Amino acid sequence: MANLESHIAWRYLFSKKGHNAINIISGISVGAVAVVTAAMICVLSVMNGFGSLVEQMFSEFDPVLLVVPAEGQTLRTDTAPIVSLYAREDIEAISMQLEQTALVRYKDHQMPARILGVDSLFTRTAHMNAIITDGFYSVWDGAFDRAVLGRGLAAQIGINAHFTGALHLYAPQRTGQINMLRPDKALRHEYAFIAGTFAVNQLEYDDQLMIVSLPLAQRLFEYDSLTATALRIEPKAKSPISNLKSQISKILGPGYKILDRYEQQSDFFQVLHIEKMLTFLLLVFILLIASFNIIGSLSMLIIDKRDDIRILSDMGASESMIRHIFLLEGWLISSLGTLSGLVIGVLLCLGQEHYGWLKLGSGSDYVISAYPVLVQATDVLLVAAIVLVLGLVTAWYPTHKLKIEK
């Protein structure tokens, strides 16, 4: 019986109707569903592309795992749990970093900046050569302290990698007594020479960060050589990140937090997730409006096939069977539109990925020249499921109102 219902519904979908307008409306219904489905695939894929692009930028600088204190600003690297991490065979490198805010001055220009002191293993946890835009990476040249600045920070101070003057760093005295008669003595002072600039294309790095040697930062902020604000961990290539994170968490206990790259940039990825969800809901609403074409198409088809309905009823077809035929008809319209939209959307995304049809702009201020896309199977399946469910719901209404005339 189900095969008979499907066969009749399939014939009704492609057969010539009594009124040509029904064929046109059916075609419009399929086209509307296809266009919105393709748009959903394209929009979600572009948002995935931007998210992947920014994630890649962050990954050039952010470590795979970051250990920070659960409370307070600093941690000691000579405690037994942390010392035990250095003996693990699944860890490639552990780098200490000390980050605080200080005043940076170059001649008449000055502004606050985040000073990041790093040790010699820093470059094994960050791909600095990939993000250097001018000069080179160096925090100590054997004779003088060097500094690598975010491109935006360097521009605001009025300096570039080829300047030879010293950068002066000032931080409030953290220990000891402050002489109220000489408040200038309450500031710690260090200096460094610029070696290069970098760009992650994120304001929190490019406009605020200055990388110096760990000893310089420890002197400036009055910490000893065993004090840091975080540990950067680079696992070995074949080490599962989730397992390593869980094991380190058990070793260190509740006094520390172990952050992966998503957690280090949780605010950004949460905003991106919310934007994607809101965009998806907006497109679903547009799809719902487009699906109302199916109601009109089915309603007119039911009117056109009144004689067929009467004949089927006289031949013993039940009311539920006849309703099911037209329900399948509506679902077939939705399915045809869904399949067409998925194919069009995926092909457009693949074409954009390989050929870059849509450009971001003609200037050089963009990180990439064309809109990035990343088609995810979960998005395709989710869109297909949503479209088919909405198609079934909208097809149910006119078939539910169907009355069989005896």
For the structure shown, list the relevant keywords.
alpha+beta; single chain; 406 residues; six-stranded mixed β-barrel
Structure report:
The structure is a single chain. This protein has 406 residues and is of the alpha+beta class. It has two domains: 2-58 and 268-400, no CATH class; 63-264, no CATH class. Helix content is 51%, strand content 19%. It contains 13 helices and twelve strands. It has helices spanning 2-14, 20-61, 80-85, 128-131, 151-157, 203-206, 214-220, 241-252, 261-264, 266-304, 306-314, 319-355, 377-400, and strands at residues 65-69, 75-76, 91-106, 109-118, 132-135, 146-150, 166-172, 187-198, 209-213, 227-228, 230-235, 256-260. The strands form two sheets. It has a six-stranded mixed β-barrel. Helix 2 (20-61) runs antiparallel to helix 13 (377-400) and helix 10 (266-304) runs parallel beside helix 13 (377-400). The longest helix is centred in the N-terminal third of the chain and has 42 residues, at 20-61. The model has no long low-confidence stretch (mean pLDDT 87).
